[in-house]
Amino acid sequence: MTAQRPIDIRTIDHAAERVYIHESYVVTFGPDGTSTDLWTLSNDGRALAHLKTLKPLQHPGVIAPIVDSERNIVAIAKRSSGAPELHVFDIATGNPLRTLMLYGSLDDARMPYSSRLGFALVSTQDADELPRVLVVDIAGDDWIAGAAYIPPDLRTGTDRRSPQFGAEHITDDGDIICSYVAPLVPDGVDHFTLIRWDGIPHENTPPSALADFPVLLEDDESVFVSRCLPLRSDTLLVSACETPLDAIDTAYSRSSVIRAVNTRTLDTLWTAEPVWGIIRRLYHTVDAGVVIATGMQNARESASKDIPVSLVAAFDDHSGALLRLERINWIDQGVDIRLCAATQDTIVVVFDNGDVSITSIDDFLAAGLTRDAETQKVITIRLWQDDEREVVHAAVTKSSVVVATQTNLVVVSW
Q1: 324-338 burial, b if ≥16 CB within 10 A, otherwise e?
Q2: What InterPro entries does the record point to (predicted)?
Q3: 60 phi/psi in degrees, rounded to 5
Q4: In the beta sheet, which residues pair with residue 36?
Q5: E runs forming strands in 330-372
Q6: What SS3 class is residue 274?
Q7: Tens-place pLDDT, residues 48-86
Q8: What is the C-alpha to C-alpha distance for residues 191 and 315, in angstroms, rounded to an integer?
Q9: pLDDT at 308
Q10: What pLDDT is stored for residue 141 in this prediction?
Q11: CA-CA 20 to 30 A from 94: which of 100, 279, 369, 393?
Q12: Cα–Cα dist 385/342, whole Å
């Protein structure tokens, strides 16, 4: 049995309900939008130093702030009853630089960003209109540099359920890739589409490439793209979740398929075998040559009590071969999971009660997560002994994880 790594634990007296990390920068949001703060982690990941207090904003959910360390800016999305906004701050001073007013409503999705261009992709939709993807100039003096629209031959009327149209990737040359799923019909849909534009598109700009990707499992009738990640400069990882129509969420009602796609031609380079559950995050561990996928599954067999399960899978980054698949049953473990993530060399699991599991990628590939031989519970390290504190949120960087509780931040490094 592989022992847990030794860890260093440091506590900062600061309450936060969301934590986001980009390289050495940490952005935290206080409860109910009471504070927004910028921090820096030391090179060894052990010390968290407060850098600046920003204008208080509500946390942006899954739309992680954009941190551009070369341009010294951070951009944060803000939803509101009116038009959504992007607030851009100067890292050195903490001062607001400008506020970009958008239109429509923001999709609850990440914003792909090109640090070379300073452009971000933002998925929006106006009422009674088809969705679009805005190319927003975060770093420059422009506002909206362009927009991608669903091509006319794919477009459907708004009298039916709206199609899915998502921002997936922007290259450093300004080419963009979006995903499209047609509106559901009684017979369901049998594929999703990736669309690529050369350069920044506008309303009438035709795409340079389109490719359809079939639903793989026989009974699945709907699909959506759950995550994308650049694998190499010319390759994009695309994870799609397939489900039957109107099926209850059970152990075998949702499956995820990861494909590696050429970013210019949209040709499929490899397709991994389907994994039961929804893949929510992808990580590429370059030295190990593997793709780590994490996600969720409801392990119940029927319309009974939910049985939440976290999954961690490893795939060969050149062939897509499944190398290891582990599941953590929350009920069997006796505690909920707040974070299941990967760094370049580590798998990190943070539990609601302050337990953590830290496993090297090599150990994970060889033997999986470290478990108790009798109970099969994942073996963990406890960050604190009192029962009153709970993990509110957590985020991981290369050699540490920052954990937010109701009263403080805990930095765990290894």
Answers
A1: bbbbbbbeebebebb
A2: Quinoprotein_ADH-like_sf
A3: -90, 15
A4: 29, 54
A5: 337-342, 346-351, 355-360
A6: coil
A7: 999 999 999 999 999 999 999 999 999 999 987 778 899
A8: 23
A9: 96
A10: 87
A11: 393
A12: 26
Please give the Cα distance from 388 to 276 (Å, whole number).
Answer: 35
Q: Is 162 helix (H, G, I), strand (E, B) or coil?
A: coil
d(CA 166, CA 223): 13
Distance (Å, whole) CA 376 – CA 50:
40
Q: Which two tokens stand for residue 37?
A: 């703060």
What span, in angstroms and rounded, lies between the C-alpha atoms of 284 and 12? Answer: 30
The residues pairing with 340 across neighbouring beta strands, listed in sequence order, are 349
Closest residue by Cα to residue 237 from 214, 263, 255: 263
**Of residues 258, 330, 243, 251, the one with CA closest to residue 292:** 258
- Going by C-alpha positions, the residue among 103, 24, 38, 49 that lies closest to residue 75 is 38
Rounded Cα distance between 283 and 243, Å, is 24
The token duo for 240 is: 């799609």
Chain segment 271-325, per-residue pLDDT in tens: 999 999 999 999 999 999 999 999 999 999 877 889 999 999 999 999 999 999 9
Cα dihedral sign, 311-314-320-323: negative
Structure tokens that stand for 313 in this block: 């899978």
Distances, alpha carbon 395 to alpha carbons 120, 159, 350, in Å: 22, 41, 9
Alpha-carbon distance of 357 to 336, in angstroms, equals: 13
Q: Are 112 and 170 in contact (CB under 8 A)?
A: yes
- Could you give the CA distance from residue 323 to residue 365 in angstroms, rounded to a whole number? 7
Q: pLDDT by residue (tens digit) across 84-140?
A: 899 999 999 999 999 999 988 888 888 999 999 999 999 998 877 889 999 999 999
Q: Structure pTM?
A: 0.94
Looking only at Cα atoms, what is the longest distance across the chain?
Answer: 63
- Asked if 237 and 228 touch (Cβ cutoff 8 Å), the reply is yes
pLDDT digits (tens, 9 = 90+) for 187-209: 788 999 999 999 999 988 999 99
HEC readout, 281-307: EEEEECCCCEEEEEEEEECCCCCCCCC
Q: What are phi and psi of 206, to 5 degrees?
A: -75, 150
Instruction: Quote the CA–CA distance of 173 and 3 in Å, as a whole number.
Output: 45
352 has pLDDT over 60: yes
